[in-house]
Amino acid sequence: MNEEELKQRVDAYVDEVWEDVVEDIRSLVRIESVEDLEHAEPGKPWGPKSNEALVEAEKIASRLGLDVTDLDGYIGYADLAGASKDYIATIAHTDIVPLGLGWTFPALDVTRKDGYLIGRGVLDDKGPFVLSLYAAHFFRRQVEATGQKLPYTLRCIIGNNEETSMGDVPYYLARCPEPLFCFSPDADFPVICGEKGVYQGEFSTNEPVANGTLVELDGGTVANAIPGLATALVRADAAGLPAADRIEVEDAGDGLARVSAHGKGGHASLPAGTVNAIGLLARYLLANGLVDDAARPFVELQVALTQDTDGSHIGLATADEKFGPLTCIAGTVRTKDGRFFQTIDTRYPTSTTGEAVTKLMGALGREHGCGYRCLEDKVPFYIDPSSPQIQTLLKTYGEYTGREARAFCIGGGTYARKFKCACAFGPHETNADEPSWVGMEHGPDEGVSEEDLKRALKIYIVSIARLMELDLA
Fold first, then answer.
1. Potential cystine with 411: which of 151, 254, 347, 445 (Cβ 3.0-4.6 Å)?
2. Up-side HSE of residue 67: CA atoms within 13 Å toward CB?
3. What is the DSSP code string of 317-367?
4. pLDDT at position 59, please?
5. Residue 172 to residues 37, 160, 214, 277, 383, Cα–Cα distance (Å)
6. What does 48-111 look like in DSSP terms, one character per residue?
7. pTM of the predicted structure, to 2 decimals
């Protein structure tokens, strides 16, 4: 089949299956597949809901005629056997970040509005995952029709732990050989050839301090997201506290008031345009005498951490030519046994190291009477954008969009960093002119254009067909 005929068949296929695609996305979005280690058990290492999504994804893959393998509930994969056991893979994930607050659409369903799909996971990453299965299904049909196998096996890896530790991939690689090439439909087009280092840490007060004016702090959902809501319980008369932009005050009884700060959440790697609720809350508490001497250093630390998002205020700012500037955000704040805990998320270029971040944050913590520990440090990832695989993806994207296609680097972390030869490849358009009510990944009202998804499915199918023609062994 020549390329023109291939593209015509792809167009007809996507039109034919699209309603099924949306319904399969819906079946996954309805599952609140957030990691729950407290209720993990053998066969369900990431918790019951994460496993439910994995099982549902495997059912979809089986229904589409792929050969499914489940690796003890850690991860799964679905194969279309080729002439060679060597394989080209896609990897997407069925787990999600917590729903968070601020939704105006149902978070656990797919709402269709004005050409968009809204719901947790439609973009990150249940929607793109379903696209990967339907791309494989297209080739299964072709193999059935012609009796001719693909040169390489095509594998759709079903991730189940991407949003937290990515602990599923090491389990997979300990049992399966590396793919010849792998792409993850879990980011932006055209092609992501590099990812900043992903670093998370935690400050904590050295002793209980939440026993005076400031009784409790709580904010954010996960460390890798800018919090849209943060609250404080304080000993004060609610009626006597002044109004302020984005601040809500209510009587909590027993001489207590609850102060809530409403920011604008988003992904930690994309802080532009967000408003950190923890910083709003900290500034209000300090401005209105709601912090006693014992808790003051910790709250002042929160102000310092939210002064900017490039680390300039705390002396962390740095950049390089490949990855651009570092980002640093305050993610969650919690109160436990009278102590306060504050997480940070930093995405760093090659001009610094995780060790350097730990050293600087440790010193900052000591200045504010806090201890500090590194929770996670993943080094930067990079693949040569001139490689035949990357050039194949760029060519296909450019043909379908008419845009100049260049590989670029991001601050987010995808599964690509876990493989020797891999990249992240769409499906989101970074410059999409989206309505204001469409939210971003990790935020409320997460949404994606149906037309973008349809085009992405076409791009994936044609890209895979071209990858199959490369000499990768």
1. 347
2. 7
3. --EETTTEE-EEEEEEEEEETTEEEEEEEEEE-TTS-HHHHHHHHHHHHHH
4. 98
5. 19, 11, 46, 38, 21
6. HHHHHHHHHHHHHHHHTT-EEEEETTTEEEEEE--SEEEEEEEEEE-------S--SS-TTSPE
7. 0.80
**Matching residue, tokens 């090439």:** 181
Structure tokens at 424: 């992240």
Q: Name the residue with tokens 């099924």.
A: 20
Q: In the chain, what is the straight-line distance between the N-terminal and C-terminal CA atoms, in Å?
A: 23
Sequence-distant (≥ 6) Cβ neighbours of residue 227 within 8 angstroms:
219, 220, 221, 263, 265, 276, 277, 278, 330, 331, 332, 333
Tens-place pLDDT, residues 268-314: 998 999 999 999 999 999 999 999 999 999 999 999 999 999 999 99
Given a cut of 50, the residues of the chain with pLDDT beneath it are none
Q: Report d(CA 442, CA 246) in Å as an integer.
A: 21
Asked whether the beta carbons of 195 and 366 are under 8 A apart, the reply is: no
Beta-sheet strands, E only, within 246-321: 247-253, 256-262, 266-267, 319-320
Angle between helices 296-305 and 354-367 (to 10 degrees): 140
Q: Which residues of 46-79 are buried (b: 16+ CB within 10 A; e: fewer)?
A: bbebbbbbbbbbbebbeebebebbbbebbbbbbb
Which has the closest alpha carbon to 62: 127, 128, 158? 158
| Angstrom distance (rounded) from CA 72 to CA 134 | 24
Contact predicate 236/250, CB 8 Å: no
8 Å CB contact between 364 and 313 = no
Sign of the torsion angle spanned by Cα atoms 134, 87, 162, 456: negative
CA distances from 13 to 16, 19, 71, 140 (A): 5, 11, 31, 12
